[in-house]
Design brief:
The complex is a heterodimer.
Chain A (H helix, E strand, L loop, with lengths): L1 H30 L15 H7 L2 H34 L5 H6 L2 H5 L2 H15 L5 H25 L4 H8 L4 H30 L2 H6 L7 H11 L3 H22 L9
Chain B lengths: L1 H34 L17 H8 L1 H34 L3 H12 L6 H12 L4 H9 L12 H25 L3 H9 L4 H29 L3 H7 L6 H10 L4 H26 L7
Helix pairs in contact in B: 2-3, 3-7, 3-9, 5-7, 5-10, 7-9, 7-10, 8-9, 9-12, 11-12
The chains are: A mainly alpha, B mainly alpha.
Chain lengths: ~260, ~290
Amino acid sequence: MFKGNTMFSYGYLALVLVFIYLPILVMMAMGFNESSNYELPFRFSLVWFEALGSNDALWRAGRNSVLLALMNTAVATVIGTMAAIALVRYKMRGHIVLQLLLFPPMAVPWLILATSMLIFFFYTGIGRGLHAMLLAHVALSLPYVIIVVAARLQSFGTELEEAASTLGATPLQTFFRVTLPIIAPGVAAAALFAFAISFDQFVTSYFLSPPGVTTLPVEIYASIRKGFTPEINAISTIIITVSMVLLLVVSRFYRFGGAR
Amino acid sequence: MAREKRRWVAYGLTVPSYLWLAVTVFLPLIVMLYFSFLSKMPFGTAEPVLTLKHYKSFLDRDFYHFLTWRSVKLGFHVTFFCLIIGFPAAYILARKVHGRWREAILLLIVLPFWSNTLIRIFAWTMVLRTNGLVDQMVHAIIPGAPSVGILYSYPAIVIGLVHSFIPYMILTCYISLQAIEDSMIEAGRVLGASSLSIFWRIILPLSLPGVVVGVVLIFVPVVGAFMEPRILGGRQSIMLGTVIEDQFTEVFNWPLGAALSFILLAIVMAIFAACYPLLRNRMKLT
């Protein structure tokens, strides 16, 4: 009976994994299928990957996406880490309020944040474009960066920092020689979060992109709504493969989900 | 003196982040609230006047009630299926699977979660369409069966969204389930509780915080979904989210869009308020 139970358990997990991976695998397979409207039988072909090479709109969108994600990672990680240190190490007046203010950007649906930014940016003359998208992406990433870095800061005491300053280190020296090396894993994880949030971000980019300046998700959405095109499968296959390989590499250094 | 200085350093360190959030989140929300009371777009020659007409038309017109009900219903359906599929998976992972297998399966579950949401929704169009994978499989088993392309229907939207959000539910449930001490369950067993009552009276109550976090994390974005219904729903796609999208991208009635956004926000806040007693302990940073 025990054996049957275990079989059932693993069988169930296998079914859940099939549900999660089946559509992704079908999508990838269709990227290698010769037919332009996903006809079966399957005939292997690389035409859609070749077609990608001459699709300038997609290339430009891809460059914008990478550029935005990199800038977002740099800005959000630096200013978010600064805020996390202030919130955890300097108990200033009002730090509870400051912490609560981190929740609206995470809890308000992105659609509402995006449309309110569109209104506000128009109203103030900031307008749409890559700079507006960067403003939005950093705002969405900041709470996650602050929470991840703050959690790391809390997991060790202030003894080392106190020792450093007693021995005459300036606050900056203490930060770069003591604090930063200790919280480095947290900062790296936060940076990864920030990159992923920006690279995957569709909703705010969609509302804040003027005609002609798009990111990959916005470009893909436009193509899907225009009609089916296997080129989208090809680019999607590349994106998914790259992001999964990246996460696999990262997971060798970090544990996810609190696995023991 | 040194204390005074420390305080200024602390404020200085937080200023960039909170200034950024002010410009991108807090001020825009305030301006949008103002917009929701405007009679028309303030970019023409005629001055707009303040009015309650957008909120009033929401209350008066059955169309909007229908939309709101559809969006909330979608939220319930997606959350429900994520829960009944995700909780058992989390339970099995936390209590039956150990060691390397557990790590590997967890990783496999979070892996796609980091890849593009839009692409994963798009992927379902190939599985669900007429002549797609599901259709072909049915025909392989029962030749001559009617075609079962369910793309562009309400169930398609639910399937796509469950697929998108189920990793949240599995993760949050898993985290609270694996924190339950074996000794608690042993104690229950020694005292003669059946497996069923151990589940109902020990495991379920202790895992409830994880379940509630999962429910909130799923319900909130699903009520505001617009891209998923657009891609998978076809003519069935009309939701509160898609109508808000239209006001900004097609109709250019921003004041109405702003009013509908605030109604959506009110729904979301009601959900948070309902779950607050169970969430309170998780909202603390320090």
